[in-house]
Amino acid sequence: MSLMPAIVNGISIGAIYGLIAMGLTLIFGIMRVINFAQGALLMFSMMISYGIWTITGVNPYILIIIVGPIMFCFGYIVEVTMIRPVLKAQSDVREPLSVLLLTASFAVVLENLALMIFGGNYRMAQSSFSDKTYSVGDVFLSAPRLYGLIIALVVSLLFYIFLKKTEIGRQLRATGQDRNTAALMGINAEKTFAIAFGLGTALLSVAGLVLLPFYYVHPTVGEVFMTRAFIVVILGGLGSVPGALVGGIIIGLIETVGAQFMTASITSVLIYLVFLIVLFVKPSGLFGSPFEW
Fold first, then answer.
1. Under a CB-based contact definition with an 8 Å cutoff, are residues 173 and 32 in contact?
2. Integer Cα distance of 68 and 87 in angstroms
3. SS3 annotation, the chain
4. Domains plus CATH for the chain?
5. Tens digit of pLDDT for each residue in 204-253?
6. Contacts of 127 (CB under 8 A, 6+ apart)
7. CA 222 to CA 169: how far, in whole Å?
8. What's the pLDDT tens digit per position in 71-92?
9. Measuring CA to CA, which residue among 4, 7, 37 is closest to residue 229?
10. What does DSSP say about strands 139-142 and 133-136: parallel, antiparallel, or unpaired?
11. Which terminus of the chain, N or C, has less C-beta within 10 A?
12. In angstroms, what CA-CA distances link 232 with 23, 39, 51?
C-alpha cells in the first residue's frame, strides 16, 4: 500500500492547520494573550465567505481580497473596543487571565449568534473544481486541497517575509520582545496590539476560505480546528511562525498516515502522545525560544 497519497493529503491539511495556528501564535507572541475565540472567528469568517459566495457566485479564492480586509478590520475593532480596556485595567500583568476569559466568552457569543442567524445546517461552497482531482503517478489529490496547500504555503511565506522585512513587522516583533522598551523607542504598543489582532484574524479568513470548498461550515466548526490549533502552537513553539507551519504539517501527517493503519480514536491518541513527548523533551516546543520574535 502506497503512503504517498496520505502523505500529500497530510501536508495539505497540515499547512491549513499551520495557517490557523499562525494567527493564534501571532496574537500570543505580540500581546501575550491566548485567544480562545480563534475557532469562533474562523467559523465567522467562513460564514461571511459563504454568504458573499452565495450572493456573488464568484470563485471562493477570489474572495480573499474581500474577506481578508473585512476580517482584519473586524479583528482590529474587537481589540480596540473589547480587549484593550481589559489590558489597560491589567497593565501591570504580563499575561492577564481576564482577557482569556473575555475571548472565551466572545467565542460563545459568536457561535450562538451564528446559530440564531444561519441555523445549524451544514453548508459548503460547491464550485466547478470541487470534485476535480489531479494525479501524479499513484498520488491523487483533490483540486480544493491542492489549491489550499498552495495558498497556505504562499500566504505563510509572505507573512513571514512581512514580519522580518517590513517596518510594521519589525515593530510587531519589537513589541513582542519587550513592549516597554519598544514604547521608549517610539512604537505605539496599543496600535501594534490592534494590528496584531487584526492580522491574526485576517490569517484565519484565508484559512476559512481555503477550507470552504471541501469542508462544511456550521456554527461549531471552529471547535475542531481550535483544538488542533492549540496543539500545533504548543508543538511548534509559542510565538514561532515557522513552528506553527511545521507543527501543523506534523499533525496533518499523523492524522492521514495514521488513518491508514489505525482507527481515528487511536490516531487522536497518537497525536496527543507525540505532543506530550515533544513537551517532555523540549518544553518550549520545536521552534520555541524567548527571543523568537
1. no
2. 26
3. CCCHHHHHHHHHHHHHHHHHHHHHHHHHHHHCCCCCCHHHHHHHHHHHHHHHHHHHCCCHHHHHHHHHHHHHHHHHHHHHHHHHHHHHHCCCCCCCHHHHHHHHHHHHHHHHHHHHHHCCCCECCCCCCCCCEEEECCEEEEHHHHHHHHHHHHHHHHHHHHHHHCHHHHHHHHHHHCHHHHHHCCCCHHHHHHHHHHHHHHHHHHHHHHHCCCCCECCCHHHHHHHHHHHHHHHHCCCCHHHHHHHHHHHHHHHHHHCCCCCHHHHHHHHHHHHHHHHHHCCCCCCCCCCCC
4. 4-281 (1.10.3470)
5. 999 999 999 888 899 999 988 988 888 998 888 877 888 889 999 999 99
6. 59, 60, 213
7. 28
8. 999 999 999 999 999 888 876 6
9. 37
10. antiparallel
11. N
12. 12, 14, 29
Say if residue 195's pLDDT is above 80.
yes
- The set of cell numbers assigned to 290 is 524567548
Query: Average pLDDT over the chain, rounded to whole?
Result: 87
CB 127 within 8 A of CB 115: no
CA distance 216 to 282: 36
The span from the CA of 68 to the CA of 59, in Å, is 15
What is the chain's alpha carbon radius of gyration, rounded to the nearest angstrom? 19
